[in-house]
Design brief:
It contains 8 helices and 8 strands, in the order βαβαβαβαβαβαβαβα. It has 239 residues and is α/β, with parallel strands linked by helices. The longest helix is centred in the middle third of the chain and has 16 residues. The two termini are 33 Å apart.
Length: 239
């Protein structure tokens, strides 16, 4: 199965997503990226309370998690701030974290991710990223993924999910300029097979705009978490 992870860029998204999860008899993840927390009005401080209040109003019984998406770490200063901010958010009810140091060279990515992960309790879900997600120009390789996840394991850090650069991008694809969705499922499957021995599966970012029949094949390529957000951002922000 694949868990749907929904980026919450407006509190009005929460009731609809939780109602849909109940209707589908499915768990769901509500997530917020570090960058989104700076411009949407949804924050790591207020989303847990909103989600719990909506769940209560709907009669509870809906199984959901709260995921800190793309917590970017681009420098030692970012790392130091993250090591204080993330535990504070976890105390508010967040249940998993995606440490994203993929903007850095491989060794810095590994060391920054390791440092931050070591302050996160082992019962909290952990996602890491190798290969910056920016479209189809550069794909994460199998050796990069093995180096990254295996290196984290050697320091006692065991990510549940690995995000990779496999041809997706965040946001809307501009078909007018010839841009099209290009998730490389073959490469994704190769990476998934390689990191499976580390107890790690794939988190797919940038699904909005992907044909639904292709999304339906994700599970066959080791993808176990799917991030979506642009669709309801456009609807809610438009309203």
């Amino acid at each position: 199965a694949i868990v749907m992870a929904c980026n919450i860029r407006h509190h009005l998204s929460v009731p609809g997503i939780l109602r849909a999860a109940r209707k589908a008899d499915s768990m769901v993840m509500l997530e917020l990226a570090k960058s989104e927390a700076s411009y949407t009005g949804v924050t790591y401080e207020n989303l847990p309370g909103v989600a719990m209040a909506v769940s209560s109003l709907l009669g509870d019984g809906i199984v959901f998690g709260l995921h800190m998406d793309h917590y970017a770490v681009k420098s030692p200063a970012d790392r130091d701030r993250a090591m204080k901010a993330i535990p504070d958010a976890l105390a508010r009810g967040w249940t998993s974290v995606a440490i994203d140091a993929s903007h850095n060279p491989d060794w810095e990515n590994l060391s920054f991710t390791r440092d931050v992960a070591l302050v996160i309790p082992p019962f909290i879900g952990l996602e890491a990223e190798v290969g910056e997600i920016r479209g189809g120009d550069v794909l994460t390789t199998v050796p990069e993924a093995e180096y990254f996840v295996g290196g984290l394991n050697s320091w006692g850090v065991f990510p549940d999910f690995l995000a990779v650069s496999n041809g997706s991008k965040h946001g809307t694809y501009d078909s007018a300029s010839g841009e099209s969705e290009g998730i490389d499922l073959e490469r994704t499957g190769e990476i998934a097979d390689a990191v499976a021995r580390f107890g790690c599966t794939i988190a797919q970012h940038g699904i909005s705009g992907t044909p639904l029949d292709k999304v339906g094949r994700f599970r066959a390529y080791g993808i176990r978490k799917g991030n979506v957000g642009t669709l309801w951002q456009n609807i809610v922000f438009g309203l």
